[in-house]
Amino acid sequence: MAELSMALVQMKGLKCRIDDILYVTTYDEHADLRGLHADHKDSNQMFQLREMRRIMEKLADVGGSIEYLFRPVQETSTLHRDENGEYRTEKGYCYRSGSLIEALLQEDSQEAPCWVQTKVEHDGEDYYLMGYEDIPMEGLNVRVR
């Protein structure tokens, strides 16, 4: 069976390769890849450029996810609702609509609680976790990276 630690080492290596590819294709500067020379009258090159744009978007997303995975945890805390109806950690980090959140959830009664990343949204009355609408945010164990 493969070891998680070895897979994480490989993920770091993958992140470096993704960064190299994004740099070479000029994606970081020009998401439309206009920094790459291509013959716009050559239908094959235009196809390749179009496909490469799609691939670069996905690679940038994967690279961002890997980067997030390796960010250090700044705080592990319990959420409390403040006087404005917003949820804050003990050190004051505030969650609003669209905020990424890591929450410790018990998804399967047969397994240990697990950190889950999702987003916070607001339904007009209160904030909730996308995909976990029935779990109250008050008192929720969270961590901030």
Q: Can you characterise this structure?
A:
With 145 residues, the protein is α+β, with helices and mostly antiparallel strands. It folds into two domains: 67 residues, no CATH class; 70 residues, Thrombin, subunit H. The protein is 34% helix and 22% strand. The strands form two sheets. Strands 1-8-5-6-7 form a five-stranded antiparallel β-sheet, with no helix packed on it. A hairpin with a 5-residue loop joins strand 2 and strand 3. The longest helix has 28 residues. The protein is elongated, with a radius of gyration of 20 Å.
Task: Give a brief description.
This protein is an alpha+beta fold. It has helices at residues 4-24, 43-70; strands spanning 75-78, 80-81, 87-88, 94-95, 100-105, 114-122, 127-129, 141-144.
For the terminal residues, how far apart are their CA atoms? 30 Å
As residue ranges, the low-confidence spans are none
Largest sheet, strands/sense/barrel: 5 strands, antiparallel
Count of distinct structural domains: 2
If strands are numbered along the chain, what order do they take across the biggest sheet? Answer: 1-8-5-6-7
The CATH architecture of the largest domain can be given as Beta Barrel
Q: Hey, roughly how much beta strand do the residues contain?
A: 15-25%
How many H/I helices?
A: 2
**SSE order in H/E notation?**
HHEEEEEEEE
Gyration radius, in Å:
20 Å
CATH topology of the largest domain: Thrombin, subunit H
Shape: elongated
Could you name the CATH class of the largest domain? Mainly Beta
Average the pLDDT over all residues and give the rounded result.
95
Share of residues in helices? 25-40%
- Derived from helix and strand composition plus strand pairing, the structural class reads alpha+beta
Please count the beta strands (DSSP E, at least 2 residues each). 8
